């Protein structure tokens, strides 16, 4: 199982890096979103994949009565998903605004903040 | 999306979803559910209402600005963690007490207050993003 | 183990049963106070008149809390509080040692001055867009990063200040802001996601996320575990946050686009969080791997400082000059990390204090110059010496400070770093630091000559902004610069304590796991 998951993670990383190398913002964003999913799968795999019962303590006991699955990776992934989801929503809005205002989603064409052919500072006065 | 059927059903659907979101929020302590998922359900209710009837009715119905709602939630969550200061316990330690509601004992806790805060943070921030996107689409 | 109703359960194996005194809460205050203030500000977003006062009051409260925290940490050693009473490593610990507490104090001091400056710089529209709430949440994220003792929690605080900084960066929605923010947002998101990747692998290796727990388990795992891979991933991820060459291109693309007070806060505080995270992970968690990587880090440091300052030499816009000066300062700090000795790290930490204050002051100075001269361009700014001699005085002092010349604070950390490089047999690194100092003098000396000394070349702006609040802010920041320059002993001793705090991992482990220290 770990082998299959590791291979999936590898494919995710490869796809995301390929997409992020693109010049177009929308492809970069898709790459970033796949990138964060690749990391979530990595956390899931790193937390050990086992067939156990959910970590719920039965009524009347104060510790679980058998070996349970590790709940921490789920908590970490949930946190990471929430964060990447909100940042991704922000990035989509930002990219959309930038596309509307600047008229391009090509990063090579986005030269408003750093215009080409700027004057050098004066050499004397 | 201005079909008659959708516009007629959307208010009922939205109010049902908000009710359901509160149910999910309250059952979250011992069963699957909780503030985050409840907040998402409520936010989607407002988004649906916005798609059907426009953004302005949603803002009127909410009365408070979505970001103010999310600020309120943040405040509730942070203060619920600070209650343990008076109990000589570290930040975010859960404090429990029992109150009587109509003769039934009900356990309430700072954990519940924290979850309610999360609910409001999620409702406020997701609704504000959704309404901003819908406004842009109609403009 | 079944419990009968009414039977007392022994919780000492799962929970911290010792009572938490109000003094222990000092470690939470610097994070909780800005969050609460930010929440209140969000609720009163229409009452823009209240914003500035509330924000300054909240930051002052956080500053007091930081002062108390640092005093206590220097007096009694690191302060630990584990959330929700769960025993570490299961609960999330906040652990303030001398490094985290002192950096959090300086960052909050800088934020107070920025909040004051913003009362005039950010109008009602900017406040309605949420300048102050974003700023408070960003400071909560920054303080949280400095004070947390849990590596996943560090990631969460990174994201908190990252999201807030997006909000600050696009405040105003000008074209160039959208352009700069797109690059800033995407590259920083990739950086933090790399950080998360490294943390996922670390969790798989160690089975724990508490930094003290990681530090005490690292030695036993070193033979079989890929710790060098982890160290390299952290170096890359935090190098991106700190804007180290060659992963620094998001900084000059974006730092000149927002409001000047936002740029001041970013230039002062944000890159230092990256440097702090590098110190925390590499020096405290992975010292043998740091030794292995020190040659690479030394090259990165030299390249960052030299290429950074050469970028500054080629710029006409004053804010872009400063963006490159920030990068060059990061290179100087990385030099101490590459050396890894106590003296080198002391120099790095002192330089971090100095750089936070001086870079913020320089950006604010640029704002004052723009208010008086009507432009950020070096081909238009001129004649400020005759019209506003006080601006000239502040400019001279701050430029001496950033170039590392007496009587300002930049001198001592550079002296320490140069001496540490010579002591550890790397004279070329000492040469790079000195050459950077020379080039910085050239770059900022030219700014001084053109903007301040040169007779007026362009017509005066019709309505120059009142500079008096700017003078107050600059005076508040120049005072520590001069004091640290003339009387550096207390700061050096704090920086030395901070350096020894991360070099001496067992002491840190002992405060998080007191029962083990007792054995």
How are the elements arranged and paired?
The complex is a heterotrimer of chains A (125), B (139) and C (519).
Chain A: H1 2-20, H2 25-46, H3 72-102
Helix pairs in contact in A: 1-2, 2-3
Chain B: H1 4-27, H2 35-53, H3 55-62, H4 66-82, E1 96-101, E2 104-109, H5 110-138
Antiparallel strand pairs in B: 1-2
Helix pairs in contact in B: 1-2, 2-3, 2-5, 4-5
Chain C: H1 29-43, H2 48-76, E1 79-82, E2 93-96, H3 98-121, H4 124-128, H5 131-147, H6 151-169, H7 175-206, H8 211-221, H9 227-242, H10 250-254, H11 260-285, H12 287-313, H13 318-339, H14 342-373, H15 384-387, H16 389-403, H17 411-423, H18 427-453, H19 468-486, H20 489-503, H21 505-512, H22 514-518
Antiparallel strand pairs in C: 1-2
3D structure, described in words:
The complex is a heterotrimer of chains A (125), B (139) and C (519). Chain A is 58% helix and 0% strand. Chain A has 125 residues and is mostly helical. Chain A has a single domain, classed as Helix Hairpins, CATH 1.10.287. In chain A, α1 packs antiparallel against α2 and α2 runs antiparallel to α3. Chain A is elongated and about 85 Å long. Chain B is mainly alpha-helical and 139 residues long. Helix content of chain B is 70%, strand content 9%. Chain B has a two-stranded antiparallel sheet. Chain C is mostly helical and 519 residues long. In chain C, strands 1-2 form a two-stranded antiparallel sheet. Chain C has one domain. Chains A and B meet through α3 of A and α5 of B.
